Amino acid sequence: TIGINYTVGNLGESKFTSLSALGGLLGNFNVGKKMGTTLMFVMVYSPYVYYYEGLWYQSGLLAVPFVAVDYKLTQKFKLNLSFSGVQQIKSDAINYQVLLGAKALL
């Protein structure tokens, strides 16, 4: 996947502007009859983010990994465990999350 994103909005009373470009890979894999995984890895280049009363943030390259595992309990119901995060290259992790949820086919 590839893309370009331009965002304009407000954070409280301050204006927010961001420009970024991204590229990545996405794949789905079955790990048996009841289990499947989704893997995604995206690199984001954000030359600037303007926010909070005129402050500039130059993030450079960000890595965004995503891994999800689905376990089929019935034909129409799956449990899902996923991990994603944002890592600034040559710096600390910006955030990460682990989610446990469910999917129901209607």
Description:
This protein is mainly β. It is built from no helices and seven strands. The chain has strands at residues 2-11, 14-30, 35-51, 55-57, 60-74, 77-88, 93-104. Strands 1, 2, 3, 4, 5, 6 and 7 form a seven-stranded antiparallel beta sheet that branches.
Radius of gyration: 18 Å
Largest sheet: 7 strands, antiparallel
By secondary-structure content and strand pairing, the structural class works out as mainly beta
- Which descriptor suits the 3D outline? elongated
Average pLDDT confidence is 85
Relative strand content: over 45%
Q: State the low-pLDDT regions, or none.
A: none
Q: What is the tally of beta strands?
A: 7
Helix content: under 10%
Q: What is the rounded distance between the termini?
A: 28 Å
Order of helices and strands: EEEEEEE
* Count of DSSP-assigned helices: 0
Topology:
Elements: E1 2-11, E2 14-30, E3 35-51, E4 55-57, E5 60-74, E6 77-88, E7 93-104
Antiparallel strand pairs: 1-2, 2-3, 3-4, 3-5, 5-6, 6-7
